[in-house]
Amino acid sequence: MLAASFRGMPELGKAIHASGLWRAYGERWVLRDLDLDLEIGRTLAVIGPNGAGKSTLLRIAATLLRPTEGEVALLGCELPREAWKLRGRIGYVGHSSLLYRDLGAAENLRFHARLFGLPGDGSERIAELLERVGLAHRAGTRVGEMSAGMVQRLAVCRAVLHEPELLVLDEPLANLDPAAAESVAPLIGRAAGRTRILVTHDVAAALNGADRVLALARDGSVAFDRDASAVDAELARSVYSDVQVPSA
Amino acid sequence: MNRPHPTTRSVIATVLAKDLRVELRTLQSVPAMVLFSTTIYVIFRFGLDRTSLDGSLAAGVLMVTILFAALLAINRLFVAEREQGGFEAIRLAPVDGTALFFAKATALVVYLVALELVALPVFWLFFLDDGSGLLPLLPVLLLLNLGLGVTGALISPMATNSSARDLIGPLILLPLLVPPMIAASSAGESLLAAGDPSYERYWTWLGTLGLYDLIFGLVGWAVFDYLLED
Fold first, then answer.
1. Any alpha helices (H) in B77-133, and if so which ranges?
2. Tens digit of each residue's pLDDT (9 = 90 or more) over A184-224
3. Counting C-beta atoms within 10 Å of the first and last residue's C-beta, which end of chain B has fewer, N or C?
4. In a domain, B88, yes or no
5. ipTM of the complex
6. Out of A64, A88, A100, whose CB is closest to B88?
7. CB pair distance less than 8 Å for A115 and B21
């Protein structure tokens, strides 16, 4: 029924369109009735307490999870039917680094470069990225022997290796010291035509770096969805408590 | 950014090269398989209290040992993809997911060939008076390896995604592997018979194994992409 009303709905210029999105794990609902629109080139910050469904929303946006109910379109492609069209257009940084522990840093990136069909196995791009995040001297080090911060930097390199149109970032600066965070930030920052969805618990970063802020409540419903300019720190922090969010 | 998508063949080569490199570094599967098969031979030798086997008993000991050694590798085949994000990496990339199936099946065949390079001479040393049946047995083993490879690569991701991986894998796999085991053991029975090897129904059993490999290869090709879904 919903699917029928959705046919042909993905609009040009929309990076993300979600309507009546629900997601359950077993009998537990993690996302409830989420509506969302985001234009191409914009940044959406997703905030909310632990267990509110932020990572689940991001995994759906990365085409790694199917919605249980409702409709989602990314870059004009309806999910999950047209997920295959999105392969290679999304960069994803999640809780798992998607890196093999027994391969070196450069070997891991070369593996991904081959999967994404980068010319010359992406050698130049890999060297450039490792240099930019300060890991050039650790190119041969196995991921299993790296610190959490190094792995996170490498995971960011992996996500941007193929210069994706949509970046889906779940706490991309986790485990990073200020200097490392500074080196990584330009790789996942604003860029022409690049849409970003960013989960963070850093309210200030969310408000500074985003065009829209989507706040999820503890039960997975939408607490608010507003332009970042209409959200102040007090309102943003209110989603982490049980304080009633004032209506816009 | 528009760039040509990698071909299925190149993705198979990429994943296979990765798997073989990791195996060479970590030695997680093949040494365990070799050690296991040698231990099984020792147990059979003392359990049966015989220094020489032939016919159906010889074939049975050889095929069952290879089967159970294969289970060790099959159980681990997709663990890295599950625990280190390989499944997600494939789903994010502009590639045909079935490339992962064929890469894993090929990796398993390579592991089994490596196992047999050691296990066959040891088997000869432990149990055979005459090794003349081993050479014609090689095509049988190769087709059995292919069958174990495609079936293992098909079932292993399902088992890996389950919390009872070590139980689910063999429970689903063993019934499915009855046909190739019957064919390989029957071919081996004639080849390992006392005296000169007999080629009775040799081609029939080879054909049966080939047909099994083809069917399960096609099933894997058809359904594997769905197994990668959440």
1. 79-83, 86-92, 98-127
2. 999 998 887 899 999 988 888 888 889 999 999 999 999 99
3. N
4. yes
5. 0.89
6. A64
7. no
Query: Is A98 at the interface with chain B, CB within 8 A?
Result: yes
Q: Is residue B1 part of a domain?
A: no
Closest by CA position to A213, among listed A43, A58, A74, A59: A43
| Interface A:B, Cβ pairs < 8 A | 82
Q: Is A2 on the interface with B (CB under 8 A)?
A: no
Query: Which of A63, A100, A118 is nearest residue B91 as measured by Cβ atoms?
Result: A63
**B19 is written with which tokens?**
């798997």
Question: Smallest Cα–Cα separation from A138: which of A185, A173, A99?
Answer: A99
Determine how many CB atoms are found less than 10 A away from the CB of residue B167. 11
Contact A103, A80 (CB under 8 A): no
- Whether B2 is covered by a domain: the verdict is no
Each residue's pLDDT tens digit, A124-167: 999 999 999 999 999 999 999 999 999 999 999 999 999 999 99
pTM of the model: 0.89
Pairing of strands A212-216, A69-74: unpaired
* Tokens of residue A179, six digits: 């200097």
The helix-helix angle for B134-160 and B98-127 (nearest 10°) equals: 140
* Position B53 in a domain: yes
Nearest by Cα to A212 from A95, A32, A43, A41: A43
Tokens of A57: 């929303």
Put simply, whether A145 touches B (Cβ < 8 Å) is: no
Range of the domain at B62: 8-227
Contacts of A103 in chain B (CB under 8 A): 18, 21-22
How many alpha carbons fall within 13 Å on the CB side of residue A85?
A: 10
- In a mutagenesis test of the B interface, which of A72, A84, A87 is the best target, namely the one with the most B β-carbons within 10 Å? A87
